[in-house]
């Protein structure tokens, strides 16, 4: 039994209830991400008296983090977030054992066994792939997860328990895309010009060759438009061959801002109801540019909306800097390519200038570099108060989970705006989706000697259940590992290869999809986490997520109806609001244009 070590812990114990508090604080916690929410969360955890915390973050501190990540200060810039967060949090409460890991949570050493060494996992992440990964590992290790996200004034905390929805149960909003013809020929808002410069032009000039069309093509797109787009892309690819030459910028400019626009204006029917674009002239702008210096660095350079000639100037400079960077990097690595990064100053200069030159051509309002960064980076201003509230709500849920008061756990939403009935509303976590490929799947550990165990051995194990507990699935199986398909009924070329030869190592995850046309209930997905045990060939089922022989996973993971059906009056009342509010912390809002790229 823990006892409060200082007044703050004692206050927390009183607020939570001394019994519940002392049961919870000795638990081993894993906190993933030490950014905006993570810093608040760690501070709250140590102040509440939690004694054993592991934090992991792959990043270093950036000056832009300092306005809201209060565990970090100026002197910490460029240092590890995880290590500094630990150092700062220990000053609040030196009695806590904090382990800090400067790593990505994707690393294979953070395997199922490692996840299982924690009692509770708390996500404070900013991207969906990492959230999905932690969710899956928590399912495999049978550990509860508290998920969080904020976007401006909105925020949410979700509790993912054994019998409640997991992160993957609810489909995520699909990114909004724009029709190709709007982006390519008839932009009408600044965001159309930004998408064109960052997702199309930047990729074509500096990205990977196969990335040449990052814009989604919708089914109703006119085939001729697509043909034209391809032709124009090929012409740009040819210009790219001149990346080494002094007039590279001029070649690009003349093609995209003069010739292509001139060609477009000849399509008269396109401009019957719209103002036609007006091409720009390289020579005229070059003459005007003489004697002009680059817009001064600092706030003004970011906030000021540049004139046409200033945009031309920044375009010319940034295109030549990016071209030089490409050429020198490709001398070392022929495959080198860039992708747009809002924090790359040259890339942002380029995208701002191209956006504005294009906007000018189409009579669209031009934007400051700051605004372009916000829109191109899908940035929603982060609000420290929102992060603080969400972190606090996470800690309250942590106490309930660790006190095993599962029925009292709530998914909580921070609501904003005039129509809200409450600032915070909660609901019981919904039941899992029966269709979910993550929580409805089976999870096994496969202890093998990867140097001798072959893919055929594995197929036999899955199909015939060599172990007495037997797996013996019925149906056709497809085997995937790390995004590649390594076996299906028509492809067994890898059969004789050992796991090592297939580069499947300790911590690797193999996904087996069983397809049974005759009996849908026998179609299932099973995850195998490889645990290398020298000289050992055994098949080990761990955790409580077992698939009984010849049964489907759905039967094996019964859902407690109580969790699904119970709703508080408050939860019901706010259900509509909840759906609108689901945020994933990497989506965006920019004026009227809601964009997710
Ligand atoms: N795979 C991962 N493994 C470990 N930490 C991760 C991983 N992916 C993201 N993170 C961390 O999650 C944290 C999320 O914090 P936050 O949303 O405040 O983002 P940020 O990068 O600090 O700020 P911003 O994106 O606004 O500049 C970041 O510190 C980030 O490094
Ligand atoms: Zn699920």
From TrEMBL:
Keyword Coiled coil (UniProt): yes
Gene3D superfamilies membership: Ubiquitin activating enzymes (Uba3). Chain: B, domain 2 (1.10.10.520), Ubiquitin-activating enzyme E1, inactive adenylation domain, subdomain 1 (3.50.50.80), Ubiquitin-like 2 activating enzyme e1b. Chain: B, domain 3 (3.10.290.20)
Pathways per UniProt: Protein modification; protein sumoylation
Residues given in the record as ATP binding sites: 33-38, 57, 65-68, 81, 104-105, 126-131
Signal peptide: none
Active-site residues (renumbered): 181 (glycyl thioester intermediate)
Region (Disordered) location: 550-577
Annotated Zn(2+) binding sites: 166, 169, 436, 439
Ranges of residues in domain THIF-type NAD/FAD binding fold: 15-416
Source species, domain of life: Eukaryota
InterPro entries per UniProt: ThiF/MoeB/HesA, ThiF_NAD_FAD-bd, Ub-E1_IAD_1, Ub_act_enz_dom_a_sf, Uba2, UBA_E1_SCCH, Ubiquitin-activating_enz, UBQ-activ_enz_E1_Cys_AS
Family of the protein in this entry: Belongs to the ubiquitin-activating E1 family.
Record PANTHER family: SUMO-ACTIVATING ENZYME SUBUNIT 2 (PTHR10953:SF5), UBIQUITIN-ACTIVATING ENZYME E1 (PTHR10953)
Protein name as annotated: Ubiquitin-activating enzyme E1-like
